[in-house]
Task: structure prediction
Amino acid sequence: MLSLVGRVAAASACGALRGLSPSASLPQPQLLLRASPAAVQPARDYAAQTSPSPKPGAATGRIVAVIGAVVDVQFDEGLPPILNALEVQGRDTRLVLEVAQHLGESTVRTIAMDGTEGLVRGQKVLDSGAPIKIPVGPETLGRIMNVIGEPIDERGPIKTKLFGGAGVGKTVLIMELINNVAKAHGGYSVFAGVGERTREGNDLYHEMIESGVINLKDATSKVALVYGQMNEPPGARARVALTGLTVAEYFRDQEGQDVLLFIDNIFRFTQAGSEVSALLGRIPSAVGYQPTLATDMGTMQERITTTKKGSITSVQAIYVPADDLTDPAPATTFAHLDATTVLSRAIAELGIYPAVDPLDSTSRIMDPNIVGSEHYDVARGVQKILQDYKSLQDIIAILGMDELSEEDKLTVSRARKIQRFLSQPFQVAEVFTGHMGKLVPLKETIKGFQQILAGDYDHLPEQAFYMVGPIEEAVAKADKLAEEHAS
Result:
């Protein structure tokens, strides 16, 4: 089982994906995302000037040990604080180290943000005197950066100042959300690729160019991308989500924007933290995860919040190891979410995509005072009939449909139609499904499910509800099926 989760206003699983209307404003109640905390955070203190390299006269150290991605550096004087960025000298490419531990004897243990091939003992290292700094601001829109803010899209340097310290279908679903929401969203979007496939990042970038989300000719791009893919060392993968978050925070605090932050995949953030923890020699906790798992996750997730100037809405994909939702990694993440959209392997095996499980998916925002009584009643009605159908499946498997009462037969019939109506053709998946993508407003979605629950379409075959948009398309498809059958 896979899980897609997010952070903003939420609704029910029955309307979660079908209600991605381009005309809706954020936060949208149909998105099954997480609402940012209402508490107002103090203004972020961004750096006032660029400092990409250590200043003259900065503390100088030398490498005394290299153990994979871990580098020990000894300083004669001026020991750098924890989280300071150090820069290795005498290399063709820039290598940044982040201070993780003080070992004593004027030695610090650091995590490399890139490969450590070619490093030797005795090599000079300079202290930058500050945490890692990255470019932020409108100039980053339409660009791809790595964890330390370097452009990796082969389009030249990002001409802006450097600010602040960086602190079964999930990806397809994220891409469809970007396609339907980010393109129509008036504010800015930030996409953080954390430990996922490089091919997917490349495909997403070119699809955004084709769709106009990224404009290479002028400054009208609406999205900034930050990548730390699975080929990167653990230090980079453990920090790239914080890099993307810093970019989003600038748009919120300085530009006054409502920002969309997409993170794919938040499990890789935890996984990288586990690798870094092991490299630093910390004693692991449950299932081998780092002992600071809850702290690391909380530090990142609780920066996604609302201020007086703007807000950050985050949609995050989570890989669930061995389909176990009680695994410490996803379980720790769930504590910070207002809504979870669970993708079920069993539903995917039925050929229903997106494979959202309405019974496992949850939302704290599913409240009539927030989404309205009509939306609430329809959502709960859909969940009830699907739960009743699930309870009857054992009887059906043993005795067959004929042994059910007429009322139960009607429940099964409507539940199967609802299951198929929950499918939706994606625009980003047109190439390999052959179905034209559909965008269904939330209001239309609620109306469709309401009419199915009321029995208005009991006479239609369940095949008519598969891979259609609004309910009118199901009626038209039923008529077409009847004509084909008659001929």
In short: Residues 1-43, 46-52, 159-167 have pLDDT under 50 and may be disordered. DSSP finds 14 helices and 16 strands in the chain.
